[in-house]
Amino acid sequence: MFSYLGTWQLKRASDKAALIASYAGAAGQAPISLAEARRTTAAEQYPRVRTTGRIDPVHSYVLDDQIRDGRQGVMVYAVLLPEDGSTPLLVNRGFLARVPGAALPALPALADESQSFSGLYAPPPGTGLRLGGDALTRQTTWPKLTIYVDLDEIGRDFGRPIDHRVLLLDTDPASGFEREWTPQILPPERHLGYAFQWFSFALAAIVIFIVLHWRRPKPESR
User: Fold this and answer.
1) What is the pLDDT of residue 128?
2) Could you give the CA distance from residue 190 to residue 210 in angstroms, rounded to a whole number?
3) How far apart are alpha carbons 171 and 88 in whole angstroms?
4) How far apart are CA 76 and CA 91, in angstroms?
């Protein structure tokens, strides 16, 4: 059992390393169209896409309790309405630092016009522990605050289904946001450490088994 768990953690480390490499490699790729990405993207792929559309100027969502470089802040999401009329797409505008306990920072303004957007077409962040149910429906002012990103809940709140992935926008110093996209996951090194622990337990179990079952020769009777 210990050996199986150690092997499982090694696989997890390998999968996480591949995920990080996929994110890093995608940033340097030539972008493809959003329509093509929707047709061809496999679960483990994170293509860079380009699309044209308009950001909904009202419906924004703020993911609270985010940490970057030891600073507390928020991730700001907006709804992109593609020019071709296809399914709306949630876009991550980036990170804004905030003072703990203070009001939300002012969000940089959005241009209410059709424009080109490019970034990584990636799964949404993990939802983690949910408490209190869907808080979006209980809020009446915008932007709405949330502690996790659930695309089904956002789609119901927005009034239209939302794409199952999000667009992590390319870096733009003029945007007012920090954009450094890496998967928010346990690093491969942590899984390697867990694997070492499980294999150590396996070795300890073998040693204990040998010690307990070692039969010493009986002394000859006289």
Assistant:
1) 56
2) 31
3) 21
4) 8
